[in-house]
Amino acid sequence: PTCAFLAIDATHARDLANSLTATGAATTTVAAHGPVTGATLV
Predict the structure, then answer these.
(1) Containing H/E element for 10?
(2) Is the pLDDT of residue 10 over 80?
(3) Is 15 helix (H, G, I), strand (E, B) or coil?
(4) Which residues span the domain enclosing 26?
(5) Contact status, residue 29 vs residue 17, Cβ threshold 8 Å
(6) What does the buried/exposed string (b/e) look like for 4-42 if buried means 16 or more CB atoms within 10 Å of the residue's CB?
(7) What Å distances lie between residue 40 and 8, 36, 37, CA to CA?
(8) How far, in Å, CA of 32 to CA of 16, rounded?
C-alpha cells in the first residue's frame, strides 16, 4: 500500500522517512514538498 505522512518541515520529513525504513515499516520512502498551507476542511 501507499501511505502519506505530513511533516512540519524538511528535517522532520527526513527523520520520519529514516525511522520508517530503519524499523522495516517501509522499504522505500520519498520526501516531497509543495506550496501548501496544510489540511483544509471542505
Answers:
(1) helix 10-22
(2) yes
(3) helix
(4) 1-42
(5) yes
(6) eeeeeeeeebeebbeebeeeeeeeebeeeeeeeeeeeee
(7) 16, 10, 8
(8) 12
* Residue corresponding to grid cell 512540519: 8
Cα gap 35→29, rounded to integer Å: 20
User: How many domains does the structure of the chain reveal?
Assistant: 1
pLDDT band at 21 (very low <50, low <70, confident <90, very high): very high
Q: ∠ CA(18), CA(26), CA(36), 5° rounding?
A: 65
Distance of CA 26 to the CA centre of its chain: 12
